[in-house]
Design brief:
InterPro entries: AAA_dom, DNA_Partitioning_ATPase, P-loop_NTPase, Znf/thioredoxin_put. Pfam families: AAA_31, Zn_ribbon_4. This is Chromosome partitioning protein ParA. The strands form 3 sheets. A 7-stranded mixed sheet has the order 8-9-7-10-6-11-12, with helices on both faces. A 3-stranded antiparallel sheet has the order 2-1-5. It is globular and about 65 Å long. It folds into 2 domains: 62 residues, no CATH class; 260 residues, Rossmann fold. The chain has 332 residues and is an alpha/beta fold. Helix content is 35%, strand content 17%. The structure holds adenosine-5'-triphosphate and magnesium ion (MG). The site of adenosine-5'-triphosphate has 20 residues, from helix 2 and helix 10.
Length: 332
Amino acid sequence: MTIIVCPNCSKKYRADTNKLTTRKKFLVRCKTCEHKFVINLEQPALVQPPVVEQKVVEPDYASTPNSSKSPRKICVTLSKGGVGKTTTAVNLSAGLATAGYKVLLIDTDTQGQSSFMLGKKPPAGLTELLTGELPPKETIFPARPNLDLLSGGRSLAGVKRIIDKKSFGSEWTLAEAMEKIDSDYDYVIIDTSPGWDQLTVNVLFYADEILTPVALEVMALHGLSEFIKNLHAIKKYKEIDLKYIVPTFLDTRVEQPKNIYRKLQGLYGDKVCTPIRYDEELSKIPSYGQTIFEFIPDGDGAADYGALVRTIAKNKNILLGGHSSDETSQIA
Ligand SMILES: Nc1ncnc2c1ncn2[C@@H]1O[C@H](COP(=O)(O)OP(=O)(O)OP(=O)(O)O)[C@@H](O)[C@H]1O
Ligand SMILES: [Mg+2]
């Protein structure tokens, strides 16, 4: 047990440290004066050891969701449109599922393209989960063995309005809803829409890791640095890591994308993954409702996404894609 002190009204709260152990930094609200403030367990200025016989009340945990068994929660995001977010989210999820992990793919985009790419039209999805219209488990649909889908689509536009109107804690809406279901999975992969709205913020408050696809074109570095600036605002309230930068649309026949790739490596080092090459087959798969591993398992797209799956799972032995993709042969 620890005592948390509101910096505004000095009200003291007793906090169950067991509930706080997985997150070192989080936002709380004082139930007495409504003041919101950040608790950083590593800089315990607002945290005191318990005092005997102190009058205490329980803190409001609604804004600090937590669960005992946590999957890896990876959001695939960049404000810039058309960079390969959905293609990456879908094929990464499918690859991890094929490798034997239990995966949930969440589509938070009103375009609903993740379901489309998987050839599925679930009758319910993220909207019904967030509005509470259906019990959580009834909003999730199997898409492939080991791969479940929480689909997006046009109805999410209404959900964004509901989130916007919430007077407090709106940024935790998704995290709270997922608390009841995500412990069933090894990975939760979240596809986001282009731009930056309330739902994107909710995704960043839920996920722990960020994977950013960056199309290797002239404005790539600008789009990425703008996104990183926005991310700083979120990092004040919760820990989230930009872990993987995935260069996409690499055209090996021309010099410019290779130069941009090298610049990315110079700026972001190990975060930069082996690129996904431009591949005609990847642009065709949405029309067939198949993943690249189903459509052309021995093509470049499957090889590149196979390599990404191995990087994310930190397991070199996963066999996906007919031939191996290695960075040196692509960029030489
Ligand atoms: N490596 C690739 N080679 C060729 N085509 C690709 C590749 N990756 C994605 N595509 C195609 O490019 C288009 C945009 O990809 P995708 O929909 O994945 O981007 P997005 O970032 O999700 O877009 P949005 O921001 O609109 O959600 C799609 O038609 C897709 O099939
Ligand atoms: Mg998309």
